[in-house]
């Protein structure tokens, strides 16, 4: 009987040694950029975006560091705020492999935060149309990547998109056109 108990204890000890608790997932880098040169070579649109991660998906025990003081100076980086560069051709290929229900699951709505993290869209004349065209695609694509690598998701919004290099130049806004007319008129005198 003692030999049997000893044998069971030995096997149990061996089993416990090799079975480890699941390691907490690592956090993504705060800067994640697709290769811009490759994107340009395949004549694709390249977008800059920001992602706010869902902090309820961070590893157990992880605390987001206090980043702001009363003087509103940011002292640490925000690990839940990512800056991205996305090649849309790569994203389209990744998202096309997903089922419709997977795409729907991966789309994340806006996550409210108490800080400004975007350049205002009004500074770029084509940004509103780019957001309508690309933002859902980029949101799903980024969440697919984050879920596969880190088991996380977040809300992604576009900041600026660079057009396909072979595409004709983007139209100037009316304000820029007026400035050129005024400057041209002044220089003619």
From TrEMBL:
Domain of life: Eukaryota
Signal peptide: 1-21
Keywords: Signal
Name the UniProt record assigns to this protein: ZP domain-containing protein
């Amino acid at each position: 009987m003692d030999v049997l108990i000893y044998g069971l204890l030995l096997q149990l000890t061996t089993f416990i040694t090799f079975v480890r608790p699941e390691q907490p997932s690592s956090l993504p880098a705060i800067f994640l950029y697709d290769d811009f040169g490759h994107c340009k070579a395949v004549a694709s649109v390249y977008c800059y975006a920001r992602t706010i991660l869902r902090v309820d998906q961070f590893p157990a025990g992880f605390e987001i560091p206090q980043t702001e003081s009363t003087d509103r100076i940011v002292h640490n980086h925000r690990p839940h705020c990512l800056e991205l560069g996305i090649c849309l051709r790569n994203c389209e290929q990744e998202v096309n492999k997903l089922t419709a229900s997977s795409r729907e699951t991966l789309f994340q709505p806006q996550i409210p935060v108490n800080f400004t993290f975007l350049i205002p869209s009004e500074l770029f004349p084509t940004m509103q149309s780019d957001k309508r065209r690309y933002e859902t695609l980029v949101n799903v694509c980024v969440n697919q990547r984050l879920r596969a690598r880190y088991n996380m998701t977040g809300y992604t919004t576009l900041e600026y998109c660079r057009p396909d290099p072979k595409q004709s130049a983007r139209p100037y806004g009316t304000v820029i056109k007026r400035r050129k007319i005024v400057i041209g008129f002044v220089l003619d005198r």
